[in-house]
Write a structure and sequence with these properties.
alpha+beta; Glutaredoxin; four-stranded mixed β-sheet; 5 helices; 4 strands; globular
Length: 146
């Protein structure tokens, strides 16, 4: 009986760890590659360490959304403006951070919509549930081969 309890406890711990890690953000290169395969849209949060609203989104809003599995249907990733400025600048253009960007592929073309500034859990949930704003011939930033 003791062995069965130990086994069940171990199985629960493994399940919990896998559930949490499955919701953690992917690195941009992996998320981009996965989105290119067409199975799920790409959801990118662009932030910077020096940006208080960015840090509030990363520490408050995003963890709550991950707990609720709100990003389950997306390849979710973070891009830091200071660490990966080239990709971040391609993603946000002339807009500021934080910025949450959703790329979806429809009929062979990428569509894009975005939220700028700090956003609450409710506003991000609403954002990911609405259909994307249609934009013709939008290109998602590719990952450079090294």
């Amino acid at each position: 009986m003791k062995q069965v309890l130990i086994f069940l406890s171990a199985a629960l711990v493994l399940f919990a760890v896998e559930s949490v890690s499955a919701q953690q953000p992917l690195d941009y290169a992996t998320a981009y590659k996965n989105a290119q395969s067409g199975d799920k849209p790409l959801l990118v949060l662009v932030t910077a360490k020096w940006c208080p609203p960015c840090q509030a989104m990363k520490k408050n809003t995003i963890p709550e959304l991950l707990k609720k599995s709100a990003f389950e249907g997306y390849h979710y990733t973070n891009v830091d403006l200071d660490k990966d400025s080239k990709v971040a600048r391609q993603l946000i253009g002339s807009r500021g951070v934080p910025q949450l960007i959703l790329f979806e592929k429809k009929s062979g073309k990428w569509t894009r919509k975005f939220l700028s500034g700090y956003n609450s859990v409710a506003s991000v949930e609403k954002f990911v549930m609405k259909p994307a704003v249609r934009t013709a011939d939008l290109v998602t930033p590719a990952v450079e081969k090294k």
